[in-house]
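haha ok so turns out i had the wrong file open the whole time. this is the CORRECT one, sorry everyone. sequence first:
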Amino acid sequence: AAELTTTSGIRSAVSAGSPPAFMSRRSVRSDVEAGRLVEVPIIGLDLSRDLTALWVGSGRPPAGPVRDLLAIATKARTR
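then structure:
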């Protein structure tokens, strides 16, 4: 089995006939709309994952957009 590490590599491999892959809708939207790839709905499969925010410096997030984004992400997670 091949291990592909980029979105474009995975998309190209699937387009060339490799086995199916799981990818974000956003990354393949144009291919699906153009009919080059087909989206297959999978009911009941939860592919959510934990993400980690990283930055250099103190334990407190930098001011501005970074802190705003983390606040939004934290609120979304607790819903």
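Residues 1-41 form one domain.
again sry for the mixup
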